[in-house]
Design brief:
Blueprint: H1 2-22, H2 43-70, H3 75-87
Helix pairs in contact: 1-2
């Protein structure tokens, strides 16, 4: 289910990118090429459609992302238990005297 939702998010995001690239807030862009008065979808209707498509796709991406978060793989739980195991391991105390050269070793107290 996680992979399916991720693929849907990717498809919606790519469509959103394409819709945003088609429209231009200044009245130019690819939407202005539909400005012929004899067409069924003239410039104003095209702009309305592109705006509705943008909001719909943005909402779809947000909703699918929230739903996908519920289907996250359980790897995060095992990673935290591995981290706990690493943190809770006992580390032996260092023995500094055995690492010193013989001439720097501390003299025995007599």
């Amino acid at each position: 289910m996680y992979v399916f939702l991720t693929i849907l998010i990717l498809i919606a995001a790519i469509c959103l990118i394409l819709i945003v690239l088609v429209q231009n807030s200044k009245g130019g862009g690819l939407a202005s090429s539909f400005a012929s008065s004899n067409q069924i979808m003239g410039a104003p209707k095209t702009a309305d459609f592109l705006e509705k498509a943008t909001w719909t796709l943005a909402g779809t991406v947000i909703v699918l992302s929230i739903i996908t978060a519920a289907f996250l793989p359980s790897r995060t739980v095992s990673a935290s238990s591995e981290l706990d195991a690493i943190v809770n391991t006992e580390i032996p105390a260092p023995n500094f005297e055995s690492e010193l050269p013989a001439d720097l070793a501390m003299p025995d107290a007599e």
